[in-house]
Amino acid sequence: MPDMYESIPYKADGAKGLGGKPVNSKPVLKTLTRGGTPAYDIADTAEGYAEAKLSLKSPLDKNEKNLENGKKMYTIYCISCHGKKGDGNGYLSTSEKFLGIPNYKDRDITEGSVYHILMHGINLMGSHSSQLTYNERWQIIQYVEVLRADLLK
Asked: Which SUPFAM superfamilies does this chain map to (predicted)?
């Protein structure tokens, strides 16, 4: 029974579907593919950064649950460089592994600019788009906004 050992791969959502019949390749408006997230098609350019900075807004409610998970994700992915307070004094900065990590207080950032950087990276910071889910990115941004507000006091 070779079919049991070497299965025939099918792509259920392919252009011709399982039965070989053409299928509508456009998703229904305001829906996502299974396991999908909204497409991020803002270019990794200075113009793209400026566009994201002005136009992107978080779709998540600002609440304790999102903020709590944002802090958790920040602690895992961001704290080693950006520090507990967002002042750029994380372990990798203080041990001089990376220099010039920005202080959130000194940057003109918005939800959109931080999201763009999480997606594409900037300077020494690489993209975190593959490590974080769509919601986790926005949750981190909520937490970064809290840290920035504390630094600006």
From this structure: Cytochrome c
Structure tokens at 57: 């807004």
User: Three-class SS of residue 125?
Assistant: strand
Q: Is residue 72 packed enough to be buried (19+ CB in 10 Å), middle (13-18) or exposed (0-12)?
A: middle
Q: Which CATH number do you get for residue 52?
A: 1.10.760.10
| pTM for the structure as a whole | 0.76
Cα 118 to Cα 126: distance, rounded to the nearest angstrom: 8
Structure confidence by residue, pLDDT tens digits, 73-97: 999 999 999 999 999 999 999 999 9
- Percent of the chain clearing pLDDT 70 (strictly above): 76
Total domains in the chain come to: 1
